[in-house]
Amino acid sequence: MTAEFAVALPAVLLLLALLLAGAAAGATQLRLEEAALASARALARGEGPAAAEAIVGRLAGASATAAIAADGEWVSVTVADRVAGPLGATVPWTLTAKASTRNETARAHGRNAPSLAAERLAAERLAAEGVAALSTLSRRTAAQAATALQPAWTRHLVMAAAA
């Protein structure tokens, strides 16, 4: 029994180390992807490269590096970092994530991009139309339910009065 345990223990420990390294790599990849997406969005809104790098540092960690590229009206951010943990420190394991988005402040297809005020007004108008449609639907549904239930109410009232 002791000999079997001594033979199996290194295999179990190696498997556990690989599982933990895989989990660390997955968590690192998720952080890198989120940082790349958030910094690409910030660049598309017109914020500077310093703000995008600050977002990468905050979301992916201080050791992450960001490469920013602009190609016409497209902006892309590539974020890279090493995998944390004991296995990540011994094995040179670097993960990357890239996000690209269209620049919202640039001229798109020969016309100006809508201003934030115009977008806000359009969103408020759509919200108001949605609330009006919802309240009309709610009033109509309530009236139909009351009409459908009214005969049942009168039946119960008549039966209660007769008893």
Description of the structure:
By secondary structure, the chain is an alpha+beta fold. 66% of the residues lie in helices and 15% in strands. The protein is built from four helices and three strands; from the N terminus they run H-H-E-E-H-E-H.
Radius of gyration: 30 Å
Uncertain spans: 107-111, 152-163
The assembly state of the depicted protein chains is single chain
Q: With helices defined by DSSP (H or I, 4 residues minimum), what is the helix count?
A: 4
What is the count of β-strands? 3
The chain-level structural class is alpha+beta
Helix content: 55-70%
Q: Main sheet, how many strands, which sense, barrel?
A: 3 strands, antiparallel
Tell me the strand percentage band: 15-25%
Rounded mean pLDDT is 76
Shape: elongated
The helix-strand sequence is HHEEHEH
Q: Largest beta sheet: what is the strand line-up?
A: 1-2-3
**How far is it from the N-terminal to the C-terminal residue, by CA?**
83 Å
Chain-wise SSE layout:
Blueprint: H1 2-44, H2 49-60, E1 65-71, E2 74-82, H3 86-90, E3 94-102, H4 116-162
Antiparallel strand pairs: 1-2, 2-3
In short:
With 163 residues, the chain is α+β, with helices and mostly antiparallel strands. The protein has helices at residues 2-44, 49-60, 86-90, 116-162, and strands at 65-71, 74-82, 94-102. Residues 107-111 and 152-163 have low confidence and may be disordered.
